[in-house]
Amino acid sequence: MTNAQFEIHLIASLVAIACAIPGTFLVLRKMAMISDAISHSILPGLVVGFFITQDLNSPWLILFAAITGVLTVVLVEKIQQTKLVKEDTAIGLVFPVLFSIGVILIAQYANDIHLDVDAVLLGELAFTPFDRVYYSEVDLGPKSLWVIGSILLLTLVLLFAFFKELKLSTFDAGLATSLGFSPLVIHYGLMSVASVTTVGAFDAVGAILVVALMIAPAASAYLLTTNLKKMLVLSSFFGVFSAIAGYWMAHALDASIAGSMTTMLGLVFLIVYLFAPAKGLFAVIYREKQQRSEVSLITFLLHLQNHSEPEERHVKHLNEHINWAKVRSKTVLNLALKNNMITIDHELVSLTPKGEEFTAKAIEYILTNEEGLIEDMKKDFFLFRG
Amino acid sequence: MEKIAVKIDDLTVAYNYKPVLWDIDLQIPEGVLMAIVGPNGAGKSTLIKSILGILKPIAGSVSIFGKPYKKQRKHVAYVPQKGSVDWDFPTTALDVVMMGTYGKLGWIKRPGVKQKKKALEALEKVGMLSFKGRQISQLSGGQQQRVFLARALVQDASIYFMDEPFQGVDATTEVAIINILKELRKAGKTVVVVHHDLQTVPEYFDWVTFLNVKKIATGPVKVIYHDDNLTKTYGINYKVSIQK
Fold it and tell me: Where do the TM regions start and end (chain A) (predicted)?
């Protein structure tokens, strides 16, 4: 790996973490689309900032752009408060207008400088090592690294200081207010951080990847954990992983770096969505199938408990009595046998002592409206699950 | 005369210039277990939210033990409606209860061992200790309500406001909750509950406020809980058998 490649990895990783942190809270606050709005509408802020400072490297540019980001949020909220349109419509109204103003301003007045729409949308990560910071002839490293490093540091300091407040006002804004924390301050604080991060990341990865880096890692982490701290760590990890894997994918395919990173983020989410242990698609399908056969099994055992007459317990006629298809009856019968719940003697099915014990308990729970406890019982009684 | 816990004067609250509470004057004596009853849209939750500063009134004032709410936050605990939060939020029952301690901690300071101990005690009190590590979406409706109650208990307040704590809970939980509320009253606390089940008012509460955009009546259940006030509040003829 060359020095430039190492620097690109470092910048991409810092951008990924700096995006994952506000992104996690945006996802939990159901405000994911706001990041899309911010990332587009900071463009006019950048342009206006450039007109005033006449310097593309000025830190004031970041401030101007961040203010436009917060302004976007305010505009969206104001439009929404009229109750004439819903939030998503308000977002769809605000950011395209601001973004277009930025595009027109660039085309009209800033054609000759390094601010073009391509770079805005996709960033120029590959070129970041060339734009360096010098202190009296000493090379201090790429400018992007300093910018995003400072933003990440600021984000981390704020996160550690206000973690409790962020968590409380995200989960229960009403309680936060009544306890004397101002959810409004937290809200705009978060929006400011998201805006500043977007501007800082913009240069390196562009508007589209910023949105992807904020939302996709957080959404993937959300499916894997039930702990906010772990969710923050996991989404940072997914962001960094996708950024680095995306870089090498772009390297191998000779394709756009930002495009490859975004594709990786999409792939990571897809894999998590399919295979997450508790909330993943396959886990849910498996659990539903298991649930279905186990409920059938319990129904079947209860039927045996309730009916001592031989004709109700005959293997051949069981399906007619419970009104089940033959295949299903056979599956359930096998499951019951495997679990030692029943015996079959001369084609007549009877409960074993273990089966008796199980059904007696189950009936008791059903009668006392505590069906939930049957779930726990399964662990003790079932050798084989459905 | 007994001490007044909450004093509300000329309170008017509006949503988009449409008043949902008109000119409410209300005094809640210290140490009562009070139900606020009234039809849907009567402004019951709004009244509680205005007392707690969550909604800004367009007129009137609220004082808690003679001072504005902002100065008395630490003496007040709040249980919002269960539906007001996202139960899929990545957090555990214990963590939610710990949130009750945040008010006394103030900004930036983190909860520590002491806060955790209090939270565990509160969970035990509501019979939820064995669920402390459970993600909150994995709890039943009744269990979620108990967690909310535990969160209010750790606030160690003098006045408790609860918005429909019995909504969607099973009978066992309802009894468990009301027993804890009665215990609080015995300890001299003031408890204010938005309540829907008119049948249980005389059995659960000793004080009642009838509300329907305006205050209809307030006072001891034994004196004012009768068909007359119910009819005035709900606008139809109400017959409840009040067991005295």
Answer: 6-28, 37-54, 60-77, 89-110, 144-163, 175-198, 204-224, 231-250, 262-286
- Please state, in angstroms and rounded to a whole number, the distance separating the CA atoms of residues A145 and A139: 13
Q: What is the number of structural domains in chain B?
A: 1
Determine the structural domain holding residue A54 and report its residue range: 3-279
Interface check for B116 against chain A (CB to CB < 8 A): the answer is no
Do the domain assignments include residue B209? Answer: yes
CB atoms within 10 A of CB A191: 24
Does residue B121 lie in a domain region? yes
Kindly tell me the burial class for residue A30, based on how many C-beta atoms sit within 10 Å of its own C-beta (0-12, 13-18, 19 or more): exposed
Cα B159 from Cα A262, distance rounded (Å): 52
Nearest to A37 by CA among A88, A91, A93: A91
Beta bridge partners of B208: B35, B219
Q: DSSP letters along A198-242, please?
A: HHHHHHHHHHHHHHHHHHHHHHHHHTT-S-HHHHHHHHHHHHHHH
Question: Pairing state of beta strands B190-194 and B33-37?
Answer: parallel
User: What does the pLDDT look like over A216-274, one tens digit per residue?
Assistant: 999 999 999 999 999 999 999 999 999 999 999 999 999 989 899 999 999 999 999 99
Q: What is the DSSP string of A7-74?
A: HHHHHHHHHHHHHHHHHHHHHHTT-HHHHHHHHHHHHHHHHHHHHHH--TT-HHHHHHHHHHHHHHHH
pLDDT per residue as tens digits for the range A6-45: 999 999 999 999 999 999 999 999 999 999 999 988 888 8
Chains A, B: CB pairs < 8 Å:
78
B105 chain-A contacts, CB cut-off 8 A: 164
Please check whether residues A185 and A231 belong to one and the same domain.
Answer: yes
- Which tens digits make up the pLDDT trace of B202-221? 999 999 999 999 999 999 99
Listed residues A215, A245, A279: the one ending a domain? A279
- The residues with which B9 forms a beta bridge, in sequence order, are B61
Please count the residues of chain B. 244
Nearest CA of chain B to the CA of A9: how many Å?
Answer: 31
If phi over 0 gives left and psi between -120 and 50 gives alpha, with beta otherwise, what is residue B168? left
- Contact call for B91 and A226, based on CB within 8 A: yes
B-chain CB neighbours of A182 within 8 Å are none
> Are A242 and A294 found together in one domain?
no
CB of A235 within 8 Å of a chain B CB? The answer is no
CA-based nearest distance B174→chain A, Å: 15
**Closest residue to A226, CB basis, from B84, B85, B135:** B135
A222 in contact with B, Cβ within 8 Å:
yes
- Which residue in A180, A225, A372 is closest to B103 by CB distance? A180
Best residue in A164, A179, A228, A234 for a mutation probing chain B (most B CBs within 10 Å): A179
Residue A199 CB partners (closer than 8 Å, separation 6+): A42, A45, A46, A61, A62, A65, A66, A69
Q: What is the CATH number of the domain that holds B212?
A: 3.40.50.300
Which residue is associated with the tokens 């159901």? A30
Cα–Cα distance between A16 and A30 in angstroms, integer? Answer: 20
> Which residue in B99, B132, B144 has the most chain A C-beta atoms within 10 A of its own C-beta, making it the best mutation to test that interface?
B99
Cβ(A7)–Cβ(A145) below 8 Å: yes
